[in-house]
Amino acid sequence: MYKNIIFDLGGVVIDFNPRDFLLDYFMNKTAEDAVYDLTFGSKEWEDLDAGLITRAAANRIMLENAAQVGRTFEVQTVIDEWEKILHTKRSTVKTMMQLKLAGYHLYYLSNIAADTMEHIREREFFPLFDGGIASCDVHVNKPDPKIYTLLMQKYHLVYEESIFVDDSRANAQAAYNLGITGILYKNKKSFNRALERCGIQLPDLRAALQQRCGGGRRGAEGGRAPPPASSRRHVSTRSRRQVRPGKPPAAKPTPKSRNNNRTTKKCRQAAGDSSPPKR
């Protein structure tokens, strides 16, 4: 029975596709391959991930190497612009939330530079993780078995109870070789199918959040439950242009009604529904 799901960050939780980035900027296969080797595929980039060199030093060396082959402009463009591709993959975050609601423990195991990791830690999804290891902190990169072992030992995880998700076949295979179930991430649908094959059922996220928040009550046919009586009286009273002579004005809704409305609104926002409440 699985209890732990371990995520790579770049390419799984965060968009990171250097080849697509280079294609968008240069649209020339020869230039793309040359610039990739000088940047994302360079020893300097690998050392950045391992925490063995600073960003400034790595950039300087990459530019020096680029000048030798006439690619200074292209490499400078990568240095200035590459972080723009690091968008949060909302589909993966949704799956992570479903896994947390189902009771699974989530961890990260990523090859990542120290300055990039600082930015990732500030993102809204990061508290979903119960822990993890970044390569820059332990000076070891995947697929070296040592970094997997460090994670398992640090959090006392059982290999047979753990799943590792990575967009690199080599990294997923390295986990499998150690006795961890490896999933090669391609897209949301294939990832969710792989989880199903592992016997993991993802709960309905919106329904679970509404139930936890105590709002969003629905009738037997799936429609929204009618508002409390006090709210109905209030709405009908406000719809009248004038108050009848001799009649006191309608009472304001009770604090309880307003709290219920606020609670329902919070549940709706947490479930990702940005549409205004029906009136």
Q: TL;DR?
A:
With 279 residues, the chain is an alpha/beta fold.
Q: Please, could you describe this protein's structure?
A:
The protein is α/β, with parallel strands linked by helices and 279 residues long. Helices cover 49% and strands 8% of the residues. The protein has 14 helices and 5 strands. Strands 3-2-1-4-5 form a 5-stranded parallel beta sheet. Helix 10 (169-177) links the parallel strand 4 and strand 5. Helix 1 (18-26) crosses helix 2 (29-38), helix 3 (43-49) packs antiparallel against helix 4 and helix 12 runs antiparallel to helix 14 (255-270). The longest helix is centred in the C-terminal third of the chain and has 16 residues, at 255-270. The radius of gyration is 26 Å and the shape is globular.
The strand count comes to 5
Helical amount among residues, as a percent range?
40-55%
Radius of gyration, in angstroms, nearest whole number: 26 Å
The helix/strand order is: EHHHHHHEHEHHEHEHHHH
Mean pLDDT: 83
Q: Give the neighbour order of strands across the main sheet.
A: 3-2-1-4-5
Question: How much of the residues is beta strand, in percent?
Answer: 5-15%
How many H/I helices?
14
Backbone shape:
globular
Q: Termini, distance in Å? A: 46 Å
**What structural class do the secondary elements suggest?**
alpha/beta
Largest sheet: 5 strands, parallel
Unreliably modeled segments: 217-247, 252-279
